[in-house]
Amino acid sequence: MFKKILIANRGEIALRIIRTCKEMGIKTVAVYSTADRESLHVRFADEAVCIGPPPSKGSYLNIPNIIAAAEITNSDAIHPGYGFLSENSKFSAICAKNKIKFIGATPEQIDGMGDKSNAKNTMKLAGVPTIPGSEGLLSSVEEGLSVAEKIKYPVILKATAGGGGRGMRIVWKPEDFEEEWNVARQEAGAAFGNDGMYLEKFIEEPRHIEIQIAGDQYGKACHLSERDCSIQRRHQKLLEETPSPFMTKDLREKMGEAAIKAALAVKYEGVGTVEFLVDKHRNFYFMEMNTRIQVEHPITEEVINYDLIKEQIKIASGDPISGKNYFPAMHAIECRINAEDPYNNFRPSPGRITNLHVPGGHGVRVDSHVYAGYTIPSNYDSMISKLITIAQTREEAINTMERALSEYVIEGVKTTIPFHTQLMKNEDFRKGNYTTKFLENFKLL
Ligand code: MV4
């Protein structure tokens, strides 16, 4: 087992990783930017190294400084958390070259999944359902038009270097195809330095359901059930829950098996997520594979009673997994509490938290790095807390969430708490009747 892990991240996830390391008897090293001197991850780690100025480029994305911090502290592994360097193939390769275990995917897996057309092709060959569309990249607008004719409109053009909602254009009729093609290629070229595009049938009003997977160094893989992440705004998740209210026993088995196939196809080691789009007939299709721990991992931990960070560390150190699949025994919901003004287009609201009261009681988990007097820097993402509730049934988990939200006091900055409070009362949400389009029609009162 590792003796010392450097955590190449900040905020709640850095704290989350430090907590598990402490329980495992592993020493921790925090890295921080000058904006994060007063952060809890710096205080709770055994050692801390300043790695640069507030902008991420100079600190949390500064590979030479992070490697140097690992060298001087004698760290034998690096946990990248999510975001920042967690899916950076160069970083994964440099860690390996310096004999530091990167607790994440190999450079080949990161690049293989980062190219979306390539990832889709890998999954198709492995027998994972994919959305009908072009065979790989389109070589001309004429080819695109002819594929669209075959699969029928509406279609969606996707940048192979995109992902997470970036570089996509929906085309509703043939007359618009050429213009959308030109705009999409131009945007992708400018944003990613790669204008490769592929085409798919556009699935209207899908659900976003992802399967948590784990694989070990010995060729075994298992799934740990699903999370429903359909409640999103501009590709930013605001609430996730498990089990999905749309799930059936049969669909879970089929999606679980497909996710395991996906993991085995890339010899996946560690914990990962296979994202699917699910249509109204419960057809499901591979969308993307995430080779990192995700923000919403705690809801899975709660319903299967399993520490996913511990599992990640154990797999990275060479432990085998049991290979059995896990099914939810409870219901869990996560509300992302962001320092944003939901009444003003979710505009970021950084600043000092002048007063704080955190909810507690039965069935409540709060993953957060903030405290009264803490100043939220404007340089990083605006998530300041994950409020998670756990209960026997979905209805009880919603009721507990409503109660916990009513206790939560965060003064000095605007937060998404009023948004979630209203969502908990929404009739369609209560019925589990929602798709990825749900928030487009949601009006905050
Ligand atoms: C789609 C789609 C409909 N049809 N692909 C958005 C994120 C990126 N991973 C893929 N996305 C989509 N791909 C086809 N063929 C609709 C979306 C989509 C979406 C997916 C998941 C969650 C929220 C979404 C919001 C808008 C569009």
Characterize the structure shown.
With about 450 residues, the protein is an alpha+beta fold. It folds into 3 domains: about 5-105, Rossmann fold, CATH 3.40.50.20; about 130-200, Dna Ligase, domain 1 (2-Layer Sandwich), CATH 3.30.1490.20; about 205-440, D-amino Acid Aminotransferase, Chain A, domain 1, CATH 3.30.470. It has helices spanning about 10-25, 40-45, 65-75, 90-95, 105-115, 115-125, 140-150, 175-190, 250-265, 295-305, 310-315, 395-405, 415-425, 425-430, and strands spanning about 5, 25-35, 45-50, 75-80, 100, 155-165, 165-170, 195-200, 205-215, 220-235, 235-240, 270-280, 285-290, 330-340, 340, 345-350, 350, 355, 365-370, 375, 385-390, 410. Helix 4 (about 90-95) packs antiparallel against helix 5 and helix 12 packs antiparallel against helix 13. It starts with a strand and ends in a 14-residue tail after the last helix. The structure holds ligand MV4. Ligand MV4 binds near residues 202, 206, 208 and 287.
Quick structural summary:
The chain has 445 residues and is an alpha+beta fold. The protein has helices at 11-24, 40-44, 63-73, 89-97, 107-114, 116-125, 141-151, 177-192, 249-265, 297-304, 308-316, 394-407, 417-425, 427-431, and strands at 4-7, 27-33, 47-52, 77-79, 101-102, 155-163, 166-171, 197-201, 207-215, 221-233, 236-242, 270-278, 284-290, 331-338, 340-341, 347-348, 351-352, 355-357, 364-368, 375-376, 383-391, 409-411.
